[in-house]
Amino acid sequence: MSSSSQVLPPGIGPSQHRQFFDELAKVVGDENISRDASTGALIGSHQQQSYGDPYALVNQDQHLPSGAVRPVSVEEVNEADAYAIVEPGVSFFDLYEEIKRRDLALWPSCAAIGWGSVVGNTLDHGFGYTPDGVHTDAQCGMEVVLPKGELLRTGMGAMTDSRLFPLYKPRFGPRIDGLFYQSNLGVVTKLGIHITPAPEAYTACELSVPNERDLSQLVELLANLQRRGVFTNHPSISNVFRQAILSPDDTVKAKLAPHFGLGKAVPESILDELHSIHGWGFWKAEFGLQGDGDVVPALENSLRRAITKIPGAQLEVKQFGGISGKFLRGDEVEIRAVPHTGVPTLEALSLMDYRMAQGSGHTDFAPVVPTSGPELLEWYLAAKDMVSAAKLGFFADFHAYSRYIIPIVLVVYAPEEKERADELCKKLIDDAFRRGLTTYRTHVEFMDQIRSHFSYNGHALAKLVDSFKATMDPNGILSPGKSGIGGTK
């Protein structure tokens, strides 16, 4: 990429830009500098390109060279208190492999695609699938470099050499960890994360309901069961399209194949046929029951009583372990695409293939919705129509929690379809906002738009955060415009 096509920071010319990187190279070495889109960017441990270096959805040439992540130490894993302290370059695979190497009785939470950063996922409000899968809740203690170079530790870490750094979240005085989530107020260099202890027994559950409109009852039931503690890891809900796309059955693949490719979408008639032939539910929720060996069977009984409220609901289970005093390792349980036992996987990447084009990518829209089934169903039906009109597939990656739902619409598109994908995302954002909803995270292109949704009392919250940015980073050095913060610099 030539310097003329680079997107430079406001007020910075090409010569100043080069001088900055020359000075930086004297400190960290030129091999550690990404000056453009073709050099210096890290290759991930699983050969993923431009690791840690984001590209725009609409135009890959509009690229602002940015930081890559190199600190890769798993500083500590404590089995007794069930926590880890990790640096930003530690992936979910790295943490899992360290726990496995030491044969620790822990199930670390991991995201759907295991090559991601534990720190990066947590700071972007990401989640996994164990009982400690809400990573913002599991996070305990941070080490942060501020824009002016100061190093601080949050929580009990602010007390020199405190052993409570990864154990106790509140500390004396205000908690400030949240300032460094989805922000540009500092660089997190270390993070404590709580981990779920391995259970004696685990029952893998698949709960299917037959009809599209059963979604309403399904999510209300799942939320209620979580509030009551019947299960504590959140369910992942898939629709027929997702079940078909990820099916290993060759007959399913043959049925779908004519409808793969640019500008194509699998017709509902084909999905209805597969739904009928294979006896799938229209919706399938995957989750687990876990605990001591004498507890899990009782939880299963509670679950079976509860699902009778939904006509036609079917529950498939598979039990593991159950021996008193013997704790299951994650890989002793059947490995599935949704990593409820903390074993990372890359299986979800296979869905990229269905556009039949090299360089296909994905984005998503992920609003936060109350556990009101009718409200979710109404939003879903409208979103489904918009995806269909865009001639793309509605891949449902819905996540049910005890008090809210995150229904992710995963949009897979080929490079030639990026404009359509972009327009679809804009329509989904606008439609949700009209319903009083918005997403919990978004692509960099839409950050200003999403931030504008939080407008209570004349955008009071945005003004407060901007004042933090002006004080902490008056020169706008760190990620200008991230989440819309300090975007005028």
From TrEMBL:
<dbReference type="GO" id="GO:0005739">
    <property type="term" value="C:mitochondrion"/>
</dbReference>
<dbReference type="InterPro" id="IPR004113">
    <property type="entry name" value="FAD-bd_oxidored_4_C"/>
</dbReference>
<dbReference type="GO" id="GO:0050660">
    <property type="term" value="F:flavin adenine dinucleotide binding"/>
</dbReference>
<feature type="domain" description="FAD linked oxidase N-terminal">
    <location>
        <begin position="74"/>
        <end position="155"/>
    </location>
</feature>
<keyword id="KW-0560">Oxidoreductase</keyword>
<keyword id="KW-0274">FAD</keyword>
<dbReference type="Pfam" id="PF02913">
    <property type="entry name" value="FAD-oxidase_C"/>
</dbReference>
<dbReference type="InterPro" id="IPR006094">
    <property type="entry name" value="Oxid_FAD_bind_N"/>
</dbReference>
<protein>
    <submittedName>
        <fullName>Vanillyl-alcohol oxidase</fullName>
    </submittedName>
</protein>
<dbReference type="InterPro" id="IPR036318">
    <property type="entry name" value="FAD-bd_PCMH-like_sf"/>
</dbReference>
<dbReference type="Pfam" id="PF01565">
    <property type="entry name" value="FAD_binding_4"/>
</dbReference>
<dbReference type="InterPro" id="IPR016171">
    <property type="entry name" value="Vanillyl_alc_oxidase_C-sub2"/>
</dbReference>
<dbReference type="InterPro" id="IPR016169">
    <property type="entry name" value="FAD-bd_PCMH_sub2"/>
</dbReference>
<keyword id="KW-0285">Flavoprotein</keyword>
<feature type="domain" description="FAD-binding oxidoreductase/transferase type 4 C-terminal">
    <location>
        <begin position="359"/>
        <end position="482"/>
    </location>
</feature>
<dbReference type="GO" id="GO:0008720">
    <property type="term" value="F:D-lactate dehydrogenase (NAD+) activity"/>
</dbReference>
<dbReference type="GO" id="GO:0004458">
    <property type="term" value="F:D-lactate dehydrogenase (cytochrome) activity"/>
</dbReference>
<dbReference type="InterPro" id="IPR016164">
    <property type="entry name" value="FAD-linked_Oxase-like_C"/>
</dbReference>
<dbReference type="InterPro" id="IPR016170">
    <property type="entry name" value="Cytok_DH_C_sf"/>
</dbReference>
<dbReference type="GO" id="GO:1903457">
    <property type="term" value="P:lactate catabolic process"/>
</dbReference>
